[in-house]
Every structure is written in C-alpha cells, then in structure tokens.
C-alpha cells in the first residue's frame, strides 16, 4: 500500500494522468473536482472518490485542500471480494468509520500491517456508501455534449432548452431524449446539478455570499437555493463552507 498526504491551494490543476494502482482520494478539508472520461465528480469533505487502476483523470482544487490518497496495488485489489464492483470509478459518502479509517492510516504510516488492515476496512466501507449525487455524467452524443458544454461554461445562463438545442444543431426533443438516455438524468435534473456544482466552486473561493450566489444562479430565493443545494450535497451551503475550512 502507498499513502500520501498533500496540501494544494485553490486553483491547482493536476492535468490528465493515470496510476498503475487504484486510488481513494479524500479531502479532510477543502473541495476538489475529479474529471474522468465519464464525467465530473465533485468531492467535498463529506465525500471521497474511488478510481480503479489505469483510469485517466484530472483534479481541480476548488478550495484549499488537505488531500489524503490511499493507493492500492492492482494485484492486491484483484483478490478482494468486491474486486468486480471496485472496477469502476465512483464517489462515496464518508461516514464516521470511513473517515476515521482513512485518517488512522496516516497516523500509523510506518506500520505496514496496520495500514493493510485499515485499507481492507476502507474498501469494505466503499461497498456500502456509494453516492452519485455529486457526479455530473457527460453525454456521448456530440449534440447533447455541445449543450452540456455550454451549460458548464455558464451555469447561470437561463437560456431555454430550445435555444441551446438549436445552437447545438438539434431539436429540444432530441436533446431531452439524449440526456435521459445517456446520463440517466432529465435535462432539468442535469442542469440543476451543474448549477449546484458551480455554486460549490464559488463558495470555495470565499468571495461570494450565499445570497449573491443564489441570485447569480437564477434561484428565486435563498431558501430555494438552500433546498436545491441540500438535495444534492446533503448539507446547506453554510455547512459546506464550514466543513471545507475545517482542519484535522
């Protein structure tokens, strides 16, 4: 097993790369975004992302982070009872046991046997706590992908679907069908998730108030913004700000 602890300031970009080992990335404080060919994964302190061996990915730091990484050799992973399930990338909710297990590995970095046992516990926890709410899947069809790219470039833009679809060379009906088929989300759900991810990035900067952000992203009120945010992130915007700045 390999473990690593690194601090990265907001704005750090780790370009596309791969590891021979599987990787569990966890930010004990701060927020990061992990991009793979399948989409974008938002990873606040209450989440961790699992990446199998050989998965190309990039990391963007949205708020100063204290990153913890557990690297699991592929041959060791192949013998794990959940090896098939762990052969894809996903985000998990970090409950008390998983959080303390990850942090404990770094307290006993010199004890290889103890680290192996802790990683074993962590992998079993991964099988129980998958959470796809902070994942934005990217459609494969070039027309739907153009619509997705336009929204991600400007999440606050409230252009009607008809206008976005026309700009992408498709009908609104076609784009609606493609988003549902290729992302398992309705277009409305996908757009809402993109806005919340943009909100998390803005909150990480610490330069925008929650009230300003709600207005900028087109929400009718702070309460409506808070409700939508909590539905996806499992916490309020204020709680997110406090957790991202907490140090362990």
TrEMBL record:
PROSITE patterns: HTH_ARAC_FAMILY_1, HTH_ARAC_FAMILY_2. Residues 145-243 form the HTH araC/xylS-type domain. The keyword DNA-binding applies. Keywords: DNA-binding, Repressor, Transcription, Transcription regulation. SUPFAM superfamilies: Homeodomain-like, RmlC-like cupins. One of its GO terms (molecular function) is sequence-specific DNA binding. The keyword Zinc does not apply. Pfam families: AraC_binding, HTH_18. InterPro entries: AraC-bd, Homeodomain-like_sf, HTH_AraC, HTH_AraC-typ_CS, RmlC-like_jellyroll, RmlC_Cupin_sf. PANTHER family: HTH-TYPE TRANSCRIPTIONAL REGULATOR NIMR. This is Transcriptional regulatory protein. It comes from Herminiimonas arsenicoxydans.
């Amino acid at each position: 097993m390999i473990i690593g602890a690194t601090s990265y300031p907001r704005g750090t970009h780790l370009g596309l790369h791969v590891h021979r080992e599987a990787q569990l990335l966890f930010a004990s404080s701060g927020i990061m975004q992990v991009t793979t060919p399948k989409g974008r994964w938002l990873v606040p302190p209450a989440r961790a992302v699992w990446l199998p061996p050989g998965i190309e990915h990039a990391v963007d730091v949205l708020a100063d982070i204290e990153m913890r990484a557990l690297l699991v050799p592929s041959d060791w992973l192949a013998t794990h009872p959940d090896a098939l399930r762990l052969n894809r990338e996903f985000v998990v909710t970090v409950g008390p046991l998983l959080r303390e297990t990850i942090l404990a590995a770094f307290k006993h970095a010199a004890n290889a046997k103890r680290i192996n046992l802790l990683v074993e516990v962590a992998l079993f926890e991964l099988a129980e706590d998958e959470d796809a709410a902070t994942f934005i899947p990217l459609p494969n069809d070039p027309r739907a992908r153009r619509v997705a790219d336009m929204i991600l470039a400007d999440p606050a833009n409230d252009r009607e679907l008809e206008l976005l679809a026309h700009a992408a060379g498709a009908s609104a009906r076609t784009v609606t069908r493609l988003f549902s088929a290729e992302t398992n989300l309705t277009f409305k759900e996908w757009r809402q998730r993109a806005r919340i991810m943009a909100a998390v990035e803005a909150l990480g900067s610490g330069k925008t108030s929650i009230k300003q952000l709600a207005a900028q992203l087109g929400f009718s009120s702070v309460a409506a913004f808070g409700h939508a945010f909590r539905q996806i992130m499992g916490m309020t915007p204020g709680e997110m700000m406090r957790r991202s700045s907490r140090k362990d």
